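Input record, target 12 of the design panel.
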């Protein structure tokens, strides 16, 4: 049984029950109406699981959010631009239009997730829990997820509607204009600061801890150019002692390494269960066509990128694969193709990991003139088998951190957001297109996706992004 939410403007809930990975121990429930469903702790817990289940969807971390965070940048490409109707191919040459399914799916599934969060937050205060600390933690988890979803939305679309209450009558939201990005960031920070207060300082597979919320808040603040504030959040994570780098880059990804010391927050998947419906699609669709079932050649690392690795960098073999006997394109080795069928991978998607915290901490320190910038950069380099950086000046360190992030996070959906955060997206991509004799030039318009045409057609108060 599954919750199915249909969007008229933003989100309408029609509750049957919830689909999710068994890792979070969902207890099956009988069908009830939404109005009478949340009457005890068990039912609230089921609704919480439904929030995590939403993150699994292909429009979110099962596929699209990874691709949209990487394909527009220079390090990966689409093998066949027309695959899936240009769903990802349009990202590659910045021809994405408002009717692209990816544009609509990310928007819709994000707001469905926000609706699920709002349902829990709207009702949890009236429910008695056996342990008050569990109730507080669940509120923190929901605040974290809502902050994460709005962070993705504002980075991808710019201004978007803010919805903080459970939607019971969708007509109430007709005529609501998009809120300004600055107001959205205020709300994201508010959610994450509350999450920090509510969440425990303990590692729990599939659920965020206080440190995960601190790390996400640091990222949000850096994206706004608030580096001094971000230093404080990221320092708290580093100094907590809760997380650490794995000893080898070969031990980070894959089913055998789930829940390791480097993972602050991950979206869980499981193959071969519930009719093969709990797996992820990235493992198969991010492989070169013809190499495995349903391989689509999405988001393939370029040869030029792979050549950036130094000879002794362990990440070259651990993070990038090549099947020269089938289709001689590189692919991300961070996702394991399942034996149970296509689009049923069991590799959890890591949303926040400790290497990201260290490199963002180094970046924030460098931008604010702090000390020990190279120390945190070198922790990531040394783990990959590289010597300490030779960079010493602020600009040298800035370039070294940028390069390290490219090498460390290939295939995880970070590069495009990094370019946008550092203000280098237009400059970098126009130079790349020019050097490769590709007749594409981008401008400020291309920093955001178009608003889905379905939203504009539904309500004229939702206006399109400039230039689309």
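The sequence produced for target 12 reads:
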């Amino acid at each position: 049984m599954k919750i199915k939410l249909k969007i008229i403007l933003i989100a309408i809930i029609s509750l049957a029950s919830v689909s999710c990975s068994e890792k979070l121990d969902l207890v099956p429930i009988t069908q009830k109406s939404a109005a009478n469903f949340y009457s005890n702790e068990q039912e609230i817990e089921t609704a919480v699981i439904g929030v995590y289940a939403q993150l699994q969807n292909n429009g979110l971390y099962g596929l699209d959010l990874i691709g949209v965070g990487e394909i527009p940048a220079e390090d990966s490409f689409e093998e066949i631009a027309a695959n899936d109707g240009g769903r990802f191919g349009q990202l590659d040459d910045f021809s994405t239009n408002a009717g692209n399914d990816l544009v609509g799916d990310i928007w819709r599934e994000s707001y469905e997730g926000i609706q699920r969060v709002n349902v829990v937050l709207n009702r949890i205060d009236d429910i008695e829990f056996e342990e008050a600390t569990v109730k507080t933690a669940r509120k923190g988890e929901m605040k974290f997820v809502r902050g994460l979803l709005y962070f993705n939305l504002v980075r991808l679309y710019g201004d978007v509607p803010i919805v903080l209450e459970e939607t019971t009558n969708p007509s109430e939201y007709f005529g609501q204009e998009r809120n300004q990005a600055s107001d959205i960031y205020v709300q994201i920070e508010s959610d994450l600061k509350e999450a920090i207060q509510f969440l425990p300082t303990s590692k729990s597979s599939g659920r965020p801890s206080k440190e995960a919320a601190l790390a996400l808040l640091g990222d949000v603040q850096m994206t706004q150019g608030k580096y001094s504030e971000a230093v404080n959040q990221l320092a708290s994570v580093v100094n907590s002692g809760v997380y650490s780098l794995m000893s080898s880059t070969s031990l980070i990804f894959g089913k055998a390494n789930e829940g390791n010391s480097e993972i602050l927050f991950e979206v869980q998947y499981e193959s071969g269960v519930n009719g093969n419906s709990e797996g992820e699609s990235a493992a198969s669709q991010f492989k070169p066509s013809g190499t495995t079932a349903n391989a689509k050649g999405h988001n393939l690392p370029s040869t030029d990128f792979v050549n950036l690795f130094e000879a002794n960098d362990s990440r070259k073999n651990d993070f990038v694969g090549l099947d020269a006997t089938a289709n001689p394109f590189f692919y991300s080795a961070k996702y394991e193709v399942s034996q149970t069928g296509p689009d049923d991978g069991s590799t959890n998607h890591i949303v926040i990991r400790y290497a990201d915290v260290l490199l963002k901490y180094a970046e924030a320190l460098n931008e604010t003139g702090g000390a020990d910038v190279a120390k945190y950069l070198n922790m990531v380099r040394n783990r990959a088998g590289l010597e300490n950086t030779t960079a010493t000046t602020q600009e040298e360190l800035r370039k070294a951190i940028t390069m390290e992030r490219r090498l460390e996070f290939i295939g995880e959906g970070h590069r495009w957001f990094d370019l946008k955060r550092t203000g280098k997206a237009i400059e970098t991509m126009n130079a790349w297109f020019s050097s490769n004799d590709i007749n594409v030039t981008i401008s400020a318009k291309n920093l955001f996706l178009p608003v889905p045409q379905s939203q504009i057609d539904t309500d004229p108060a939702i206006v399109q992004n400039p230039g689309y």
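The domain at 4-258+350-446 is CATH 1.25.40.390 (Serine Threonine Protein Phosphatase 5, Tetratricopeptide repeat).
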